[in-house]
Amino acid sequence: xxxxxxxxxxxxxxxxxxxxxxxxxxxxxxxxxxxxxxxxxxxxxxxxxxxxxxxxxxxxxxxxxxxxxxxxxxxxxxxxxxxxxxxxxxxxxxxxxxxxxxxxxxxxxxxxxxxxxxxxxxxxxxxxxxxxxxxxxxxxxxxxxxxxxxxxxxxxxxxxxxxxxxxxxxxxxxxxxxxxxxxxxxxxxxxxxxxxxxxxxxxxxxxxxxxxxxxxxxxxxxxxxxxxxxxxxxxxxxxxxxxxxx
Amino acid sequence: xxxxxxxxxxxxxxxxxxxxxxxxxxxxxxxxxxxxxxxxxxxxxxxxxxxxxxxxxxxxxxxxxxxxxxxxxxxxxxxxxxxxxxxxxxxxxxxxxxxxxxxxxxxxxxxxxxxxxxxxxxxxxxxxxxxx
Amino acid sequence: xxxxxxxxxxxxxxxxxxxxxxxxxxxxxxxxxxxxxxxxxxxxxxxxxxxxxxxxxxxxxxxxxxxxxxxxxxxxxxxxxxxxxxxxxxxxxxxxxxxxxxxxxxxxxxxxxxxxxxxxxxxxxxxxxxxxxxxxxxxxxxxxxxxxxxxxxxxxxxxxxxxxxxxxxxxxxxxxxxxxxxxxxxxxxxxxxxxxxxxxxxxxxxxxxxxxxxxxxxxxxxxxxxxxxxxxxxxxxxxxxxxxxxxxxxxxxxxxxxxxxxxxxxxxxxxxxxxxxxxxxxxxxxxxxxxxxxxxxxxxxxxxxxxxxxxxxxxxxxxxxxxxxxxxxxxxxxxxxxxxxxxxxxxxxxxxxxxxxxxxxxxxxxxxxxxxxxxxxxxxxxxxxxxxxxxxxxxxxxxxxxxxxxxxxxxxxxxxxxxxxxxxxxxxxxxxxxxxxxxxxxxxxxxxxxxxxxxxxxxxxxxxxxxxxxxxxxxxxxxxxxxxxxxxxxxxxxxxxxxxxxxxxxxxxxxxxxxxxxxxxxxxxxxxxxxxxxxxxxxxxxxxxxxxxxxxxxxxxxxxxxxxxxxxxxxxxxxxxxxxxx
Lengths: 246, 132, 582
Ligand SMILES: Cc1cc2nc3c(=O)[nH]c(=O)nc-3n(C[C@H](O)[C@H](O)[C@H](O)COP(=O)(O)OP(=O)(O)OC[C@H]3O[C@@H](n4cnc5c(N)ncnc54)[C@H](O)[C@@H]3O)c2cc1C
Known about the structure:
The complex is a heterotrimer. Chain A has helices spanning 34-45, 106-114, 136-143, 153-157, 159-163, 170-180, 188-195, 209-213, 220-240, and strands at residues 3-10, 20-27, 64-67, 70-73, 87-90, 97-99, 102-103. Chain A is α+β, with helices and mostly antiparallel strands. Chain A folds into 2 domains: 3-103, Beta-grasp domain (Ubiquitin-like (UB roll)); 106-240, Fumarate Reductase Iron-sulfur Protein, Chain B, domain 2 (Orthogonal Bundle), CATH 1.10.1060.10. In chain A, strands 2-1-5-3-4 form a 5-stranded mixed beta sheet. The longest helix of chain A has 21 residues, at 220-240. In chain B, helix 2 packs across helix 5, helix 3 packs across helix 5 and helix 5 packs antiparallel against helix 6. The radius of gyration of chain B is 23 Å and the shape is flat. Chain B is 76% helix and 3% strand. By secondary structure, chain C is an alpha/beta fold. The termini of chain C are far apart. Flavin-adenine dinucleotide (FAD) binds at residues 15-21, 40-43, 45, 48-50, 52-57, 136-137, 161-162, 196-199, 208-209, 212-213, 216-217, 247, 249, 358-359, 381-383, 395-399, 402 of chain C. Residues 15-21, 40-43, 45, 48-50, 52-57, 136-137, 161-162, 196-199, 208-209, 212-213, 216-217, 247, 249, 358-359, 381-383, 395-399, 402 of chain C line the site of flavin-adenine dinucleotide (FAD). Chain A: Residues 2-95 form the 2Fe-2S ferredoxin-type domain. Chain A: Keywords: 2Fe-2S, 3Fe-4S, 4Fe-4S, Iron, Iron-sulfur, Metal-binding, Oxidoreductase, Tricarboxylic acid cycle. Chain A: Its EC number is 1.3.5.1. Chain A: Pathway: Carbohydrate metabolism; tricarboxylic acid cycle.
């Protein structure tokens, strides 16, 4: 059987001060993804290699890695597409590394909470026994942004986040927009505080790389620019109009 | 969280020349840098206005100055950069602008196409004015 | 919000951050905002396996549908092993729960006038499956998780692995857990514990289940003395992609997909499932129940009418006649999965599929309040067995189940915690004991590899507890699993690091899987009849005289497994024949 070489980023904080690369030869099989190759390494060659994975069907968002320089879901990145190799596998960029390919992402978890990603509305007139109506076209307005699997590839691709981790970042803003654009939601104004901050939408310089990296077609870059429009609009209104007309 | 571990996290550093590592990053940096050309044209226009305001002599001198080879070179370069700037922005506009006509989103290509049409129309009008 | 201090204490600890766990957490917070509730999860909650559910969630809402019909479909689909009192309350509350999720923002697919749309599903006589395209579980889980963020009393322990239930004199009062990032071992004390750890499909080699589905919660309860109910009922889903085991949702057939053998023939008509029509007919042919469809596949393979591939026999799922537009609108994920993982396009190509282990009907025994027979212990979701699924779960009943019983578990645990006396000191000794065990495990230098034992276990289960079973192979499997238990006891972790040690987790998961594998095989051996997903070639008929009863697997002090039986609750639907397609 043909083989291919994986060059894997290793970092063992208890024994090493700096990361190293380790090479493993794995079978080059047509239907193997990078994740299958890593599992082969772990089961057959080196049990100490650490990485996250779970669903292996591109929906849980666990297995993001940098494969040959690009942020990818390793379950959906096939060896044959990178033959003859070697394939360099590193942790996602822009995040601190806990160990090997495992990144630290509590920063995102906090930012996600900060944009209030839940329906905000006055529920006093809602009838719990029926649905809130929403036409397919109204759903289309936000549907795309609801597809985010929190895989962190967009943060890894975003140079702004790399340079300043205070930037709230693509996925969190896209999710804020997901709710802002939902016909059932009334929370746009509440979310604006966080979004219109310096570290919010204005941090984005529209590189657009987040959208290219997104494996689910979410288009965070578009979401951010649209949020900028809203934020600018609101700022102008707040400046020009008395409160009661706004 | 154990403090020891936080210190042991490996912090990945962004390399100094990060924007050379990827074509798209480079394009982005070019888009941002080419805005200098736009600034230049604004300054140039202001100089022109000042010259016109100061009377025919001053205006003549401005024209002479503009006809010098190095000035022509600068302006030609600035034009190229400004065109690049415009195109890179037009490329991303459909992403930022969502237009809906009768409940359907206008496709990005149509939107970008409309921008180019508008751009060429305005340029044609200006060209007509200048030539006539 | 995340990292708590050493030796934390809460009113309620929920182990599991999937659909059931998050729903339970919200229920506790809503019961009384003064209660402190913790969610312990070995992965970030939005990575839980609920995320991969595709097809939809059932609840009667259409004008021509009724609660009774949903209940009847569920009971007959479960081959009369369901507890009918549980089913009746389930079908009522399912609708309320799905509506609540709608109000929380779940993007359910809609009809043109803005109402929630429903689709057909296997074994259901009416259209009642709500769906969010074919990413229902994904939207459901993310909606729940994002909504849970607004409840301040919820403390999350993300990427903490629970290793043991603390039990003091018959009362459960917390868990011991490892923080994966640091390797820190911690006691999380609580007046009530809810297990919501999901299924255990990874006991088998070929499964739709994620890597994390290792039945941990079932093993925790089993070791603490709670019985596991109906463990022999393991559902095979008829349509998994070969090699990966990735699921092609039943919705593909509900939208009109056909199953074809190697001659392009809709073979299900030969197995008493109805006559083929171009349009899908409810409770007929491709929309029969999963157990019957998977069994038909085995017979078809035996007749040599399946297609051979390097991953064994397959049949074809044909979606081509649906057209690109319908596939894009209703089954985008099916297309995405086929394209990304199989490199085919269902718009043009036939999709190769074969039966794949999908769901465990069995689990921790609970009553309708989600209480297990240990004080202070509750369970909900796939890890629990109430039972509404009986001998065969109907597709799209599990998502509403995790909501209905997640909410019930949260409410019951909250009520219990409010009344319960403070926790005794005995748990400290137990926790110290567990810490020592884990330290020893981490330091062990075993010769055996965890991966090798895991593979052996998986193949043992597939051979003995697959779609068809018999007493000889089951008896042999009992012995093999005993040996594997012994080998596992001396296996080495092979990684001594305390930082994100996935080998340690793998060893603990293997131990859990071996325990539940034993309970599956023992329960299957003792049930000398064929019912739903449990088909014995040596006892091919259903036997309501002896086995209209739940198997209850108890762990013996020596690690053995004892089976008892408990009667099934029948309210309105006496056992009858399961009729599909006629
Ligand atoms: C591919 C697929 C498609 C499906 N499609 C459908 C469908 O269309 N309709 C339907 O009704 N059902 C469907 N199901 C079934 C349904 O999705 C599951 O039964 C259900 O989601 C289980 O939810 P849960 O909350 O019980 O568990 P899970 O979502 O699996 O969550 C388990 C949680 O427990 C945690 N956990 C486990 N062990 C430990 C431990 N030791 N320590 C700490 N935390 C732990 C995990 O981290 C996780 O958070 C599908 C299943 C699969 C596999």
